[in-house]
Amino acid sequence: MDLTDEVSDKRAELEGCRPGHDSRDVALGDLAVALHNRFKAEGKVDDVDEAITLHRAALELRPSGHPEQSSSLLGLARCLSSRYGNQGVVADLEEAVTLSREALALCPPDHLSHGASLNSLARNLRRRFEKYTTMHDLDEAFELHRSALELHPSGHPEWSSSLHGLAVCFLNRYNNQGVVADLKEAVTLCREELAHYPPGHPSRGVSLKTLAYGLLAKFWEQATVHDLDEAFELSRTALELHPSGHPERYLSLCGLALCFSSRYNNLGVVADLEEVITLYREALGICPPGHPDRCVSLNNLGVNLQKRFKKHSTMLDLDEAFELHRAVSELYPPGHPEQFFSLHGLGRCFSSRYDKLRAIVDLEEAITLGRAALVLRPPGHRHRSTCLYNLGFNLWTRFWRQASISGSGRAKFVRRAALVLRPINDARAAFSFHALSLHFWDKFQNQPAIADLDEAISLATYALELRLLNHGDYSASTGKLALFIRERVQWFVQGRSPNESAVLGQAVDSLCALEHYLRDRFRKQHAVADLVEAITLHKYVLQLRPAGHPSHPSNIHDLKLCLIEKFHDTAAVGDSDVAIALERKTPDLSVPGDPSYDVSKDCLATYLRIKISPQLMRASSIRSVATEYEVSQVVRHVVSEILETMPTRLLNTQTGVLCDRDAQISHFTSSQQHKQLLSSAMLYDPVERVGRIHTVVSACFRFAMFSHRWGEGEPSLRDVQGRAIYDMPPSSGVDKLQKFCLAAFKQGYQWAWSDTCCIDKDSSTELQEAIGSMFGWYRRSALTIVYLSDVPETGSFAASQWFGRGWTLQELLAPATVLFYTRNWSLYRNIESSNHKADSTILEEIAKATGIASRFLTDFTPGMDDARLRLQWASSCRTTCPEDVAYSLFGIFDVHLPVLYGESAEFALGRLLAEVISQSGDISILDWIGEVSTFHSCFPARITSYRTLPLPSVPPSDAEEQSSTTSQRPGSSTVKQKSADPSSPGCHTYEIQASGLLPLEITLPEALENVALFPGELENATSALQLVRPWHSKLLSGSAKLDVAATEELLVTLGRPFSALLLTELPHNEYRRIVSSTVIAAQPTDSASILHNGHGVATTYEYVYERSTSHIPAETRENQTPWVESFDVVGLQPSNLRAYTIEVPFDPSRTLYRPTVVD
Prior knowledge:
alpha/beta; 6-stranded mixed sheet
């Protein structure tokens, strides 16, 4: 069947399963699967967005314990994973991992979906590894795929998926660690998988592409031409299977381009390079702006245009390469995890242009970019040596250019130049760095310039790294570096160069990175020499970054950790004493409340415990408790968990830049708090580790929310993306946003959220998720800042229009901490409080302005309790979009419903009210006065109908006294129109007398027959109307048996006045509410009549009669014949009968509260 036809069929099936239908969850899931299949074939993003919405809806119908919940979890995880692959939103990937874990937990080994759950979680962990290169994820993916393979022998539907996943795991590990055995295993598995897919199989193309990449990597390792030839053949076949428009075409294009590029690099055939550029141009065309692979495509095309420039020296190619790499740099700004590619690509372009034009400015730019790129490839990274080689070559080029133009010192310069070898490998590069460092040291000695000394330190650091411990010249490198650093420290002490230059800063960062590399190698190989050298390097760093430097506390912390680890291996008490001495100084470098302050206190306690009980600590060494890698995994998981509950975009109040989840994570991982947390958390008690990490990370991600009235010129997401709001041209909206961020920053919060620019309002999916999450965001915020633009500095906010906003209700009730700011951004009434909700004076003012009791303002719980009261709070609120009146209450009632902008406000409110009744059974919300809704006649058309207070309860004693004088004869039930009142022309007053009720009157603007009766009903007028009382099951208090006190309380409650509903009967035993604009205040005559006449709800009397008959007079029990007439209110599905049914008493011998229209 055609995919579009399948979607149409499944959509028709869903339309046949209206809300409440037993099979609706199945229909939702089937349509979601069909849409996802079409997305995989055609790549339409709308399909996967809708599939995700449908799976979420199905999941709501399959709560915990439902046998098919795991199926919905897996389906939703697959869709989120696919959307991540298409759009690159990390939040989708993280949620996919979470959902896959939940599904696996619900599918034990004997479950039919156990294998699919294993593969789903493994696939998403593998993708997360590809994003963050965290080996823990890859190791777990390996384990899961192997378990799935053991479970599914060859021929099983999940076998090929498990095999493919395992092959990709081997390829990922090879790419990360370069182990050739992994590559060979991957190729073997790929061949086995391909044999399983005959020509025509939908998965054959992906299998061909994966095997081709494995063979290509094998060619790179072993230069076996037959591997390259086979890779060519497979890549061409895969591309043929993925024509234009196919979701896999982009990867197939890139795979074939890699084959041509490899052959060009090997043989230098120009035609191959031309083919590479053609393929990459097509790949770039598939990735429009915003596509997650666009940066990679820009970079690939730029690299190969640069290659063609080197071949033909055509400046057009180099100019285009520059343009492409600059575009990459805009998409990979500072702090982005992939920024290296933009720096590296631009650096190569500048180097190439220098070779062509010999402009020294280009060479200097290439060196600057090369240093910056090197920072992003720390020691131990597989591409670090390439970066060092490129930087070394450019430095060598600059040196020889200077040697050729030197003046009076030319002879000495040339002699020194003879020692500086052109880098052609790591050994020559190390020698060149060492010789160049000596050259700059000589320059500094002859004519002291701090820039030359910093350059000498930087170059000596690179030489030290390339030589490491086992190199014969390592000690010479360390000796020279120590000499240079001692001289630099003297300049610090003498105050001749108090500031750290950029070159020196990069050198010190390299020393820190080298120290971490040595410490990690010590943990793997347990060579104490590595740890000793790491301690030495740390001491160098501390000399270059003394007290007062922002990194000094973190550097001290790292040194303490090395000393403690050395103590564990050597039991040298001196190491622990030094660590304790350093830790005692650390609190002086921070202040109470700062995360680093608490961390330092914890570490000092741990070190002292080590000193007191060394044998205990040696029995459970730090390495056995947690390595830095293990801690980093916990931290990453905690960060992901915390961000999942926060807005997806936040403004950095310090820089004014809007950051998505990736940028937020990157900012945190590059911070000093993160570095210090990684080192200190290794020493935490294992039982407390996760909780303490959670506390520190939570403090780093505290955020402030904004509440305000929209005005002119509010900046949108598109306006602020890629810009700092503090640099934007002034306008009223920008000024307000800037001052909000500044206020949040002054209050100590680094992150802030505003509804103007932190939501993509062009995305219906994101808007739906934001509205559904907004109450939770305000609830979890550390602070909500309320800006009252219409309140002067010394005025009162009682009349502020902010209180009349529809969204104000949740923005006021949800947060625990609120600060009010007036028009000029001064605190309201100049009350310098950390929380205006804690100020009794302000709290009283809010209560008066809103009509909301103080207890709700300070301790509000979302949900269904006091539903009628909550609607009354909202009854005076207004919204720009009429539908928002209902949407703004979703969080108040804790309901999750689709956001359907464009629907009528009546339908939006009707859906909300129906959901409240469905979930809670609370029909007090039927107590309203006003116009009926077209959605349902028992619901109001506008929320303003709830402004009228519910009918007050009359004390039981008063009710009894009144009943004794006006009791009616059983069986009477009439509606009598009174004579017209000359003073009220056009009004019709009716007197209603019903058995068991006190007489009551209603006044209508038109005759009752005109509003109550349909054509053909006049002859049946005696049974056309129903006077009913809404009922709530909570009156029974959920008790299985009513004792004497409970029975009496129930009867007293039923004896109180109530607001009655007047209904007219329609065909098919359905009813419609009428005269909704008039209050019908009814009251039973006395308690005895309640039982005798069956007043109220018949099921209740059955309950009382059957469960508590001993408390009912014998004559009443004998004459009691309880009946119940249940009717479905118009417009509701039969499956919702229990939720929406109004129950009324009915006796064949007489009709209670069923009045007759009397002329």
